[in-house]
UniProtKB/TrEMBL annotation:
Residues 131-286 form the GGDEF domain. Pfam families: CBS (PF00571), GGDEF (PF00990). This is Diguanylate cyclase, GGDEF domain. GO terms for biological process: cell adhesion involved in single-species biofilm formation; negative regulation of bacterial-type flagellum-dependent cell motility. GO terms for cellular component: plasma membrane. One of its GO terms (molecular function) is diguanylate cyclase activity. It comes from Neomoorella glycerini. Gene3D superfamilies: 3.30.70.270, CBS-domain. CDD domains: GGDEF (cd01949).
Length: 287
């Protein structure tokens, strides 16, 4: 046993570690000095105490910012401020590592964002729990023309740029528990609360339109399009890339699973892509 939690009326008030006990009692006169003194004389009265709902990453950050002499002390877990358990640093790090391995298995290799399996699980879980949420389907317009002219490396750069823009927008304007996934290619998914969706979409559009033109050569950027000739020698011109976002609210209709919700989002996305420029559209139809 590495440590013992001291509890008063169900609430943790200190931590007695094996190292701390040996430090105080292990000297030549240690036992005599502390004999008869209260337990508070040898416990750590300010241990790290975390709520049971705090994400593992946050717990790890708090633990690693402790003074060196307390860096590897156990962490006390509470629920409604009552003692719920204790966790060691080794178990915490092992759990985080295993979680990261599981996440990596379902992640998109280009962006590192969760892939299709995680997206499906996330949507289904929220539907089953009866959550009110907005699914945002994000897609780049005129990406194929850009990719054909500038090559896959530049195409990947455009996809990573959009991933960064989406992640930043969700972090700035989304809510705790929001989800961002990468379906594949230039298609992404965001899950957020309905009240935050507009702000998220507006920032994505603003930043995408601001940064994307600089992926093009000066000549293409200046004329605002890519021009080329097809196999019949006919000139074709494609506008610079823009972004289309389709919003579907779980409260607007009754969805049984991710397939039904994705079908509505895909239909709405096709409508958005027919509009000029970057745009986001919301499905307002009901059952």
């Amino acid at each position: 046993m590495r440590s013992v939690v001291v509890v008063d009326a169900g609430r943790p008030v200190g931590l007695l570690t094996r190292d701390r006990l040996y430090y105080h009692l292990g000297s030549h006169y240690g036992v005599a000095l502390y004999l008869g003194r209260p337990l508070t004389a040898v416990i750590d009265a300010n241990p790290l105490i975390v709520d049971v709902d705090l994400p593992l990453e946050n717990v790890s950050q708090l633990a690693m910012h402790r003074p060196m002499q307390r860096l590897y002390d156990d962490i006390i877990v509470v629920q409604d401020k009552k003692y719920a358990g204790i966790i060691s640093i080794q178990r915490l790090l092992d759990t985080i590592t295993q979680t990261q391995i599981e996440l990596a298995r379902g992640a998109n290799p280009l962006t590192g964002l969760p892939g299709n399996r995680r997206i499906e699980e996330e949507i289904n879980a929220r539907l089953q729990d009866g959550e009110d949420f907005t699914l945002i389907y994000v897609d780049i317009d005129n990406f194929k023309a850009f990719n054909d002219k500038y090559g896959f490396e530049k195409g990947d750069q455009a996809i990573r740029l959009l991933a960064d823009i989406i992640t930043q927008a969700v972090t700035r304007h989304g809510a705790p528990g929001d989800f961002t996934g990468h379906i594949g290619g230039d298609d992404f998914v965001i899950i957020t609360v309905p009240g935050r969706a507009d702000a998220v979409c507006q920032e994505i559009i603003a930043n995408f339109d601001r940064h994307t033109p600089y992926l093009y050569d000066p000549a293409d950027r200046s004329q605002g399009c890519i021009c080329s000739f097809d196999r019949q020698g006919k000139k074709q011109c494609f506008p610079l890339m823009t972004v289309s976002l389709a919003l579907v609210d779980s409260r607007q209709r009754t969805f049984k699973n991710h397939l039904e919700m994705a079908a509505v989002a895909a239909e709405l996305k096709q409508y958005a892509k027919l509009q000029p420029g970057s745009i986001y559209v919301r499905d307002r139809r009901r059952n």
